[in-house]
Specification:
Helix 1 packs across helix 2, helix 3 packs parallel to helix 4 and helix 6 packs parallel to helix 7. It is built from 12 helices and 10 strands. Strand 5, helix 3 and strand 6 form a beta-alpha-beta unit. The chain has an 8-stranded parallel β-sheet.
């Protein structure tokens, strides 16, 4: 259903007339255009990278609406609608459908620590309630739970559940999940550093953080893998390695927001409890981005790093 690079979008913020944090719609729309011009295969608003946890319900819906309206069908929009509250996740997913999103991405319930049966019932309840393609999201480092292969296999049989974003970087678990799931169920990497081996096993692409700033190179990697051009894919993989690492030197999206600010695209403002990179780390990030720009033939960051 989806393939290639799908960017987990940052959400730019600025201050309103009262000094309150609000969504910077102009910077956001410019970022959408930049991504589409780079050739990405999909866009994900209001996910982890988009600081969904600190968006109000109204902001969450308005961000999805803005994305759908501005993208205007140029690429699929996969709205983040996950929550640790099943009823809230149903409401967000229904809102995404009503607003015109093409699909929804739902993180496993976090903090409450459900058992595998509870995780299964959560996802099934949302899928049963809302007729919209839905993608599971397994990221144990965020949720303190792991979607095990047997649970993924059960969920792959549920109507409206079409795939999974797997951010475990565990290729053994990925293999077991792929072997257990129904034919046609799609797998998307949620770990930028392991996209090449993920796709070599049969993955369909990546829901990426690093593609916020290097979409062309990540697109080169996934397109090359789809064409069995392993030489080009390896070149892109090695070029991206240090940049991908830099995006997670602190909690996502702290580094990628700082990188977008260095590019002059938006403010690096974050909402508490996230705090900005310190000067020393910003310099390391700048050096990593400069090195990437000089090592990759597309030079997609060259002459833009502040």
């Amino acid at each position: 259903m989806f393939h290639g690079v799908m960017t987990a979008l940052v959400t730019p913020f600025n201050k309103d007339a009262n000094g309150q944090s609000c969504i910077d719609k102009d910077a956001y729309c410019a970022h959408l255009d930049r991504q589409i011009d780079a050739g990405v295969g999909g866009l994900i608003p209001a996910g982890t990278t988009g600081e969904a946890a600190t968006l109000s319900f109204d902001e969450h819906k308005s961000l999805i609406a803005l994305t759908v309206q501005h993208v205007a069908g140029r690429v699929p929009v996969i709205a983040g609608t996950g929550s640790n509250n099943t009823a809230e996740s149903i409401a967000l997913t229904q809102a995404a459908k009503d607003l015109g999103a093409d699909a929804a991405l739902l993180i496993s319930p976090y903090y409450n620590k459900p058992m595998q049966e509870g995780i299964y019932q959560h996802y099934k309840a949302v899928a049963d309630a809302v007729h919209l393609p839905q993608i599971l999201y397994n990221v144990p480092g965020r949720t303190n739970s792991n979607l095990l292969p047997e649970t993924v296999a059960r969920l792959s049989q549920v109507n409206n559940i079409v795939g999974i974003k797997d951010a475990t970087a565990d290729l053994s678990q990925l293999t077991c999940s792929m072997m257990a799931c129904r034919d046609g169920f799609e797998f998307y990497s949620g770990d930028d550093a392991t996209v090449l081996p993920f796709m070599a096993l049969g993955g369909h692409g990546v829901i990426s953080v690093v593609s916020n700033i290097a979409p062309k190179t990540m697109q080169a990697l996934t397109t090359s893998m789809e064409k069995d051009d392993f030489s080009t894919a390896r070149k892109a993989h090695f070029a991206l390695q240090h940049l991908s690492d830099a995006m997670f030197v602190q909690s996502n999206p702290i580094p990628v927001k700082a990188a977008c600010e260095l590019m002059g695209w938006m403010s690096g403002d974050l909402r508490l409890p996230l705090t900005s990179l310190q000067h020393h780390d910003v310099q390391i990030l700048r050096d990593t981005m400069t090195s990437f720009a000089s090592s990759w033939e597309t030079l997609e960051l060259a002459d833009s790093i502040g």
